[in-house]
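Incident log, entry 3
Record: Acyl-CoA thioesterase (134 residues)
Problem: checksum mismatch between cached and fresh output.
Input:
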Amino acid sequence: MRFLSRRLVMPNDLNFAGSLFGGRILEWIDEEAYIYASCQLDQKSLVTKHMGAITFEASAFQGDVVEFGLETTRVGRTSLTVCCVVRNKGTKQNICVADDIVFVHIDNVSRKPQAHGKTKEELDLLPIEPPGYK
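Fresh output:
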């Protein structure tokens, strides 16, 4: 799993108890997973079809930096399934795991599923990070 992106937990991201709001982290997961899937397939016309089990394991607080680990778990004819782990950058403790996020490639005009033309084997060979990214 590659940790590709980071976010700073800001005051507007907190719930009434002072920890990171679950809805905010789900919004971030959907966005980060879309960006990852879009880059993997080299396609922009993707929609989120399904998010499976979401497990919240720890809290994050104002000032924490969280990072998003993503990997492709399955490639279908029109779909891509992604796993996302959100962890605290400093402690490396998992905050949240979303292990079944399915994106479907759609036709721009008809909005119907359309083959993306990629295989898992092809995607496994792609470099994710740009050179020098740490």
